[in-house]
Write a structure and sequence with these properties.
Mean pLDDT: 97
Helix content: 40-55%
Low-confidence stretches: none
Order of helices and strands: EHEHEHEHEHEHHEHEHHHHEEEHHHHH
Structural class: alpha/beta
Number of helices: 17
Number of strands: 11
Largest sheet: 7 strands, parallel
Bound molecules: NADPH dihydro-nicotinamide-adenine-dinucleotide phosphate, magnesium ion
Length: 387
């Protein structure tokens, strides 16, 4: 890479994407300076990261966590807290990695783009919920939105060979691949008794709990359909999903002449992360190559009957406005309840569906209106959990 060092802010540093980002930074210390990190509640791990990388500014979830971290670090770095802290940190570096989970990542997405930074976005929930607001801040001079999510990172790479006009007129459709998750071959009857442990055993990716559950319901793919429309400005009728259990083809772009461009690699999130950090250059990674000996790639269509989350996401995309924000918020509440053993796996998507029955068109025209929509959807979701 060129001699110029890039500063990096890593928000959500203690999570799965966060720790894999640290792996990439460890392997490329000459190119990057980690100038800010944030975590939520894992204070000891955050303190270790701060010490290892000598990070000058740190964010935590709340004032209580701020005091706890200050106790561990002594008179070390500056510590900020809450959404305000995340917002400040997201304006402080050349590249901002948003690896926070859930709607809590919103201040990072809006903060980084609003400050004209490169945003390496793993946090799909903020983009799904706030798509109209993100579209506006993306116009800020210098702002650049690069997807860490492997499917969208693949599409970004596939599109580099396509005429870059608005709405990609040469593209017939974007094809997102889905591993199908742990329940790909489970019958409807078996799914009724799926447990927390079953849902958390993903066949090809090791990820945080929330996205692992989302992968098991295919809500993750539903959110990714919405993410694709927002990222690439393509209508939802031009976004399709195919099941591909090996997770080697990360996604594809089909052109008007029937050509299909695909991006492949071993399933390893450090690749898309390094793409977002290094672009336009490629970082050298030495963690193994794709092994073609005996490699079999299978493709199939998703089963919307066993996995109704996909249909809910397409419906939310067609309704637009705050419907995607409602979908994502209701899903966060339902997944948290499932992870806390309050509801069964088979209740997660029905809770989301019942919340969407209450949705009546709402615009997303300000942060305040979005926060109100998010709160309304969560209220209906909690009410649905009690039933
Ligand atoms: P994890 O649960 O592993 O990590 C989430 C991170 O967010 C942790 O660092 C956590 O802190 C932090 N966090 C949570 N709430 C707050 C808050 N209020 N303020 C500050 N930090 C907070 O999730 P993943 O790494 O799996 O996923 C992160 C995002 O990336 C998600 O949006 C997910 O959909 C997306 N993604 C993840 C992939 C993966 O391979 N894991 C692949 C593609 C996308 P702490 O743990 O200290 O509480
Ligand atoms: Mg993905």
């Amino acid at each position: 890479m060129s001699n110029e060092r890039r500063s990096v802010a890593l928000l959500g540093a203690t999570g799965s994407v966060g720790r894999q980002t640290l792996d990439v930074l460890r392997a490329h210390r000459a190119q990057f300076d980690l100038v800010a990190v944030a975590g939520g509640e894992r204070i000891d791990l955050l303190a270790e990261i701060v010490k290892e990388f000598d990070v000058p500014v740190v964010g935590v979830k709340s004032e209580r966590h701020r005091r706890e971290l200050a106790g561990v670090l002594g008179s070390g770095p500056e510590i900020v807290s809450g959404a305000q802290g995340l917002s400040e940190l997201s304006q402080s570096a050349d590249v901002v990695v948003n690896a926070v989970v859930g709607f809590a990542g919103l201040p990072v997405t809006l903060g980084a783009l609003g400050a004209g930074r490169r945003l390496a976005l793993a946090n799909k929930e903020s983009l799904v919920a706030a798509a109209p607001l993100v579209a506006a801040v993306r116009e800020t001079p210098g702002a650049e939105l690069l997807p860490v999510d492997s499917e969208h990172c693949a599409i970004h790479q596939c599109l580099s060979g396509v005429r870059p006009s608005i709405g990609y007129p040469d593209v017939r459709r974007l094809i997102l691949t889905a591993s199908g998750g742990p329940f790909l071959r489970w019958s409807a009857e078996q799914l009724k008794s799926a447990t927390r442990e079953d849902a958390l055993s993903h066949p090809t990716w090791s990820m945080g709990d929330k996205i692992t559950v989302d992968s098991s319901t295919l809500m993750n793919k539903g959110l990714e359909v919405l993410e694709a429309t927002a990222l690439f400005g393509v209508g939802v009728e031009r976004v399709d999903v195919v099941i591909h259990p090996q997770s080697v083809v990360h996604s594809m772009v089909e052109l008007l002449d029937g050509s299909v461009i695909a991006q492949m690699s071993r399933p390893d999130m450090r690749l898309p992360i390094s793409y977002c950090l290094g672009l336009p250059e490629r970082l050298t990674l030495n963690w193994g190559d794709l092994d073609f000996s005996g490699l079999t790639l299978e493709f199939d269509l998703p089963d919307g009957d066993r996995f109704p989350a996909l249909g809910l996401a397409y419906a939310a995309a067609r309704r637009a406005g705050a419907a995607p924000a409602w979908l994502s918020a209701a899903n966060e509440v339902a997944v948290a309840a499932f992870l806390a053993d309050q509801i069964a796996w088979s209740d997660v998507v029905p809770v989301v569906a019942s919340v969407m029955d209450h949705y009546d068109d709402e615009p997303v025209d300000s942060v305040e209106s979005l926060l109100a929509s998010d709160a309304a959807a969560r209220k209906w979701a909690r009410a649905s959990l009690k039933r």
